C-alpha cells in the first residue's frame, strides 16, 4: 500500500511542477526506488488512458479514491503487476475489476489496436524519450574526464572517442563517447543506469540532461567571482557552476521550496561543493542593493516553467485543459519576466543566463523580448554558432534544444549582457588565439568563424576558460595547439 500511496503523491507533485519525477522519487527515500520509479513512470505514461477508464467507470465516485491514487491502482491492476501489494485497496479495486477491464477492452476495439502501448496518443514522443541518450556530466570538483573515462573502460564500458556529429550520440549497449559540444559530458546508450554506480554515489558524475548543462557552461563564471543561482533547487546547475568556478568565489543560491533545498544540500555535499550559500528565500524579495551582493556579476536564472520540454511530461491535452494551460502559461511568463527584470537590477551585474525546460515561445523568446525592451542597457550574446537549433526568429542569438535536433529534452537558453561590458571587450586589442597568454574574451569582435573542432572542446576542459565560453566558441577559430594538460590527481579509483 505504501508503494501506491507514494507513487500517487509523486504524480501529484510532478503535476503541480514541484519537481521532476526522478528527483521526487529519489527524495522519497522509499525502500524500493526502482519499483517506485517504474510504477510512477508507467502510470504517467498511460495517464490519459487511465483517466478515461476511471471517468467512464465513475470509479472515483464509487470508491472515493483520489485521481492519482486511482490511476496508480488501475494501472497496476490492468497493465502492471495485478495489485500484488494492494492491501485494503485491493479488495476495493477487485469489486470493479471487470468493469475496468471492459472499459479498457472497449477503448482498444474503438481504436482497433490490440496492445496497451498502441493506445498511447503520444507514442512518438514516448519513443523519443526512451531513445534519448543517457548524459553524464563529469564533476570536475572530484575528478577529471580522462580519469572517469579510464575508470569506466575498466568497468566494462567501451569508449568510442569524441563524438563529432549528432549521429555519434546514437549508441548501443556499453558504448560511450565524449559529447561534441560540452567538454565535460559523456554520452551513453539510452537505458544505461548509473544510479547504483560507484561514480554516481560518490558524486564523481552527475546525471544531467545535456541541454540542462548549457546555462552554467555558457555563463562560465570565472573562479573567485560572486554569483547568484536565483531559483536553484535541486541544484544540478549550482553544482555545475561551482565546478566551473573551481569552488572559489561566492555562490548565493535561492529557492522557495524548503524540501527541495534540503535535497539540494545533500546533492551539493555529495558533489563536494563548498562555495555555496543556500537561502530559503523568494528571489524576488532579495534586495539587489544589499551590501552582500555588491560584487555579484553573474546570475543564473532557471525559474519555474511549464516543463513542456520534458518529454515524459508532454501529453495531448483536452480543450478544457488547453485553456487552463494557457492561463498557467500567462501566469508563468509574467513570473519569469519579473524574475528576469529583478535579476538585471543587481548593480554590478555583467551577465545573466536565462533558461527554461519549456518549448513555448511565451516562456522563452517572448519573455526575453519583453525584458530587453524594458532594459535597453542589456543585449543578447550570440551563443554557440555550431549548435543546431536556434531561438525563434528574430532571437536567433539564443539556443533551443529538442529531441529531434539536439537529442535532448526541450530547452531554451538566452545570455544577456550589460552593454558597457560588451563595449569594454570591444575596446580591448584583438589578440592571436594561438598565443597562450591570449585573453580569450578579446576575440569577441569576429563573428561567424568556423565551428570548433574536437581539440578545442577538449582543451577548454583544462585551460583557463574564456570569460564567455559561448562567445569564444561562437566567434573564434579553433586552437591548433593545445596547452599541455596538467594531470589532475586520480580520485575515481
Ligand atoms: N535550476 C534548478 C536545477 O538545475 O536543479 C532547477 C530549478 S526549477 C526549474 C525552479 C525552481 O524555482 C524550483 O525549485 C522552485 O521551488 C523555485 N522557485 C519558484 N519560485 C521561486 C522564487 N520566487 N524564488 C526562488 N525560487 C523559486
The CATH architecture of the largest domain would be 3-Layer(aba) Sandwich
| Average pLDDT | 82
Taking pLDDT < 50 over at least 5 consecutive residues as the criterion, the unreliable ranges are 430-493
CATH fold description of the largest domain: Rossmann fold
Bound molecules: S-adenosylmethionine
Which CATH class of the largest domain applies here? Alpha Beta
Number of domains: 3
The oligomerization state is single chain
Q: Characterize the largest beta sheet: strand count, sense, and whether it forms a barrel.
A: 8 strands, mixed
Structural class: alpha/beta
What proportion strand?
5-15%
List the defining traits of the structure above.
493 residues; alpha/beta; Alpha-Beta Plaits; Rossmann fold; 3 domains; globular
What would your notes on this structure say?
- With 493 residues, the protein is of the alpha/beta class.
- The chain folds into three domains: 2-119, no CATH class; 133-207, Alpha-Beta Plaits; 210-424, 3-Layer(aba) Sandwich (Rossmann fold), CATH 3.40.50.
- The protein is built from 20 helices and 13 strands.
- Strands 6, 7, 8, 9, 10, 11, 12 and 13 form an eight-stranded mixed sheet that branches. Strands 2-3-4-1-5 form a five-stranded mixed sheet.
- 44% of the residues are buried.
- S-adenosylmethionine binds at residues 231-237, 254-257, 260, 282-284, 302-304.
